């Protein structure tokens, strides 16, 4: 996301209870490092940013609050990390984000944080292991798993950023 994109988003009027940016991330992987820095920077530019630990109402219905926040967001930054695909919450969130992208032409920026974009796109490497675990869970519907796979593939095919230590 360029600074001109940030400036355009921050200068646009944000309707009540809506967000310029929605951050989708696996908390245990990136909350206290990459996501924290990104959130702080975006807020410093004057953007309304949804991050689950800051914006979810205590005692509220998490699933409906997340769904509403996604519907009310303009830009989505998906931070793919090592354990992103292990989280059913992250994967359900991703499906909703991709629906918003296709229906409302919302901007989606994938960030591959210490993961290979190809592993996300093809569900290989650690992502393959995560899906093996989901498929072994008898409670998971095959259609839901296929929706997760499709959303991962679509998101990973978008132009994004690759963050790595090397």
Automatic annotation (TrEMBL):
It comes from the Eukaryota. GO terms for biological process: defense response to fungus; positive regulation of programmed cell death; signal transduction. Its EC number is 3.2.2.6. Coiled coil: none annotated. It catalyses: NAD(+) + H2O = ADP-D-ribose + nicotinamide + H(+). Residues 17-166 form the TIR domain. One of its GO terms (cellular component) is cytoplasm. GO terms for molecular function: NAD+ nucleosidase activity, cyclic ADP-ribose generating. It is found in: Cytoplasm; Nucleus. Keywords: Cytoplasm, Hydrolase, NAD, Nucleus. Belongs to the disease resistance TIR-NB-LRR family. This is ADP-ribosyl cyclase/cyclic ADP-ribose hydrolase. The lineage of its organism: Eukaryota, Viridiplantae, Streptophyta, Embryophyta, Tracheophyta.
């Amino acid at each position: 996301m360029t600074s001109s994109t940030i400036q355009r988003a921050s200068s646009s009027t944000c309707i009540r209870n809506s967000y310029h940016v929605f951050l989708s991330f696996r908390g245990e992987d990136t909350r206290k490092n990459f996501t924290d820095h990104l959130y702080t920077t975006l807020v410093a530019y004057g953007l309304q940013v949804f991050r689950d630990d800051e914006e979810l109402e205590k005692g509220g219905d998490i699933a409906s609050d997340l769904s509403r926040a996604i519907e009310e967001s303009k830009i989505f930054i998906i931070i793919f990390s090592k354990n992103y695909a292990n989280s059913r919450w992250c994967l359900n969130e991703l499906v909703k984000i991709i629906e918003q992208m296709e229906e409302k032409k919302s901007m989606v920026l994938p960030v591959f944080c210490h993961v290979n974009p190809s592993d996300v796109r093809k569900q290989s490497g650690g992502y393959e292991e995560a899906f093996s675990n989901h498929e072994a869970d008898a409670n998971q519907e095959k259609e839901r798993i296929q929706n997760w796979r499709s959303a991962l593939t679509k998101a990973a095919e978008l132009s994004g950023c690759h963050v790595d230590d090397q």
